[in-house]
Amino acid sequence: MKEVLIYTRFERFWHWSQASLIMFLAVTGFEVHGSFEMFGFEKAVMFHRAASYALLGLIVFAIFWHLTTGQWRQYFPTTKNLFAQIRYYMFGMFKGEDHPTHKTEISKLNPLQRLVYIQFKLILIPIVVISGIFYLFNKSIDKNNIIVISEFKLETIADWHVQGAFLLIVFLIIHVYMTTTGTSITSNIKAMITGLEELESENKNDKKGEAKNEG
Ligand code: HEM
Prior knowledge:
- By secondary structure, the protein is mainly alpha-helical.
- It has a single domain, classed as Up-down Bundle (Fumarate Reductase Cytochrome B subunit).
- The chain has six helices and four strands.
- The protein has a two-stranded antiparallel ribbon.
- The two termini are 17 Å apart.
- Protoporphyrin IX containing FE binds next to helix 1, helix 2, helix 4 and helix 5.
C-alpha cells in the first residue's frame, strides 16, 4: 500500500463548493417552491439567485479544468467489470467480498461511478441549470420599459427545474451512502478532504489505461 494524491486541490475545492452550493440551492429553491419557510420568500429568491450565479461560475471553471487536464477521460463509460461492480454493491459487500475493481491514480472511478457521474454531468446538472437559466430570464424588461416574457411557458420551465432538483437530491442521498462503501466507512470522504488515499501499489499485470478501480 502507498499513500497517493488522488484528488488535486482544485478538484477538492470544486467538489465541496459544488456540494455546498447544490444543498444551499435545494434549501432556498424548495422555500421558493413553498415547501417550508426559513429565510422568507423574498430573501430565499435573492439567495437562490446569488448561489445560482456562483454555481454557474464554478461550472465554467470546472469545464475548463476537466478539458485542460484531460480529467474528463475519467468519466468515459466502460462495461468492463460493470456487472461485477453492481453485483458487489448489491450482494458482495454485505458478505465481506473484495472489491471487484481497484482505484488507481489514472483510473479513479469504477465502471458504475463512471456511468452514473457522466449522466450526472451531462444530463442531470444541465436539466437543472438550463431550466434555471430559462427561469432567470423568463421575464425581463427591455429598453422601452416593456416586460418581455419568454416564449417558454413558466410552468413548463418550473416543472423541469423542480423535477431536476428532486433527482439531484436523490442523487445526493445515494452518493453520500455510496461514499461509505470504500475500504473503510470514511476512507472515501477523507480522500476528498485531504486529497490523499492509501492505494495498493499498481499491479504490473494491469495493462496501461485498464487499471482496475475501487468504489
Ligand atoms: C445554475 C443553477 C440554477 C439556476 C440558474 C436557478 C434558477 C432558479 C430561478 C430563477 C428560480 C425561480 C425563483 C427566482 O426567481 O429566483 C428557481 C427556483 C427553484 N430552484 Fe433553482 N436554479 C438553479 C439551481 C438549482 C438547484 C441546484 C436546485 C436544487 C437542488 C434548485 C431548486 C429550485 C427549486 C425547487 C425552485 C422552485 C421552483 C418553483 O416551485 O417554481 N435550483 N431557480
